Amino acid sequence: MSEKEIMASANEYIMNTYKRFPVVLVKGSGVKVWDVNGKEYLDFAAGIAVCSLGHSHPQVIAAVKEQIEKLTHVSNLYYTEPQTQLAKLLVDNSFADKAFFCNSGAEANEAAIKLARKYAHENMGPDKFELITMKDSFHGRTMATITATGQEKFQFGFTPLLEGFTYVPFNDLQALEKAISAKTCGVMLEPIQGEGGVNIPDEKYLASVREICDRYGILLIVDEVQAGMGRTGKLFAYEHSGIKPDIMTLAKALGNGFPIGAMLATDKISKAFVPGNHASTFGGNPLATAAANATVKTILQEGILEHCRKMGDYFLLQLKKLQGKHKIIKDVRGTGLMLAAQLNIESSDIVNECLRRGLLIISAGSKTLRFVPPLIITTGDIDQAMGVLDEVMEGK
Fold first, then answer.
1. Is the bond leading into 374 cis (omega within 30 degrees of zero)?
2. Diameter of the chain by CA atoms?
3. 3-class state of residue 243 by DSSP
4. 259 contacts 289 by C-beta, under 8 angstroms
5. What is the CATH number of the domain that holds 363?
6. Into how many domains does the chain fold?
7. Which of 131, 132, 204, 250 is deepest in the core (most CB within 10 A)?
């Protein structure tokens, strides 16, 4: 099928839930992808922070090929080796004692919300069910997770929302403490807000949130769906603050493109879940966990985290240089390879023009460019991307 035929067919048969770019991608390798016409693109979106090892990574491909020839699915009524290996790998490298597997970030956050409420019901009393979340946050598209999301644009048309959520400004400790009530069972936040604009809190913010949660005897849930799995230069973003959450959620880069999510918790908290409380038919299936095992091991064993930190520092420096040259850039910020350029104009024109010139970038809000490239990018890749941006911004 031609590009026009594929797009026309998609528009006819697929629900209109995405504002798609007019391009049909068919192949990827490393930090590049190609469309159906053979045009090459430098991918600085990585499937929205998913393909952290780049496209078609050989170790991930090998792991999935090996697993698909052995066992694809048997349900969680039985034990499987890849799932057990992944649980141990994540536990050994985090604060957690137990893992629950699902298929997406929204499902992971849904599981975290349920676990927090179940734990609170059993240990704090039935009146403790409310979660405090942050304005400009994003936690998913299920009914519970859009309610947890502190952005009205994602909630519009889906009211009435679920009971038991209240919102405070991100990075505002005074507002957080003031919002705690007799109903509060926990605080749920992203260590860096991704969809909300790549918003980075003060250096001691997370540590102070942890202290507040401890003082009031409530849980701390950290949503690392986008910031986790090496994106900030550490395996998990919470590590930068030296804290330990009670519950953490993962997805996106966990399987380097293979759909998988995870919710991790301490043993004390996880005991609130017993058989029948929560489940996922496909969660943690052998294929997904094989891909995730290969992904996590590669991140940990091949210097990816150190490389991410170095490339992040270089990338941020180049963005600051670009800011000095173009007045449309109000601010640049980021940690590791989770970066943003805030503009004083709408970002869509910049994104579309970059696409036309062979660079894939995305927005975070209407006036912020978001850069979440594969963690394997080089200085040459960054220079190429900056060259395109420089040309596109000329005269804006």
1. no
2. 61
3. coil
4. no
5. 3.90.1150.10
6. 2
7. 250
| Cβ partners under 8 Å of residue 250, min gap 6 | 90, 105, 108, 224, 225, 228, 229, 261, 262, 263, 264
Residues 206 and 329 in one domain: no
pLDDT in tens, 282-299: 999 999 999 999 999 999
* Claim to verify: residue 295 and residue 313 sit in the same structural domain: no
CA separation for the pair 385, 379 (Å, rounded): 10
347, 335, 250, 259: which is closest to 47 by C-alpha? 259
2 lies in some domain: no
Domain boundary among 254, 285, 301: 301
Last residue of a domain, one of 270, 301, 332: 301
Q: What is the DSSP string of 275-286?
A: TTS---SSTT-H
For the chain, how many residues are written?
396
Q: What are phi and psi of 360, to 5 degrees?
A: -95, 115
**What is the SS3 assignment for 83?**
helix
Question: Rounded CA gap, 375 and 110, in Å?
Answer: 28
Residue 96 structural domain: 59-301
pLDDT tens for each residue of the chain, 396 residues long: 999 999 999 999 999 999 999 999 999 999 999 999 999 999 999 999 999 999 999 999 999 999 999 999 999 999 999 999 999 999 999 999 999 999 999 999 999 999 999 999 999 999 999 999 999 999 999 999 999 999 999 999 999 999 999 999 999 999 999 999 999 999 999 999 999 999 999 999 999 999 999 999 999 999 999 999 999 999 999 999 999 999 999 999 999 999 999 999 999 999 999 999 999 999 999 999 999 999 999 999 999 999 999 999 999 999 999 999 999 999 999 999 999 999 999 999 999 999 999 999 999 989 999 999 999 999 999 999 999 999 999 977
pLDDT, residue 395, reads: 76
Residue of 387, 233, 396, 392 whose CA lies nearest to 321: 387
Helical H segments across 69-137, by residue range: 81-92, 105-123
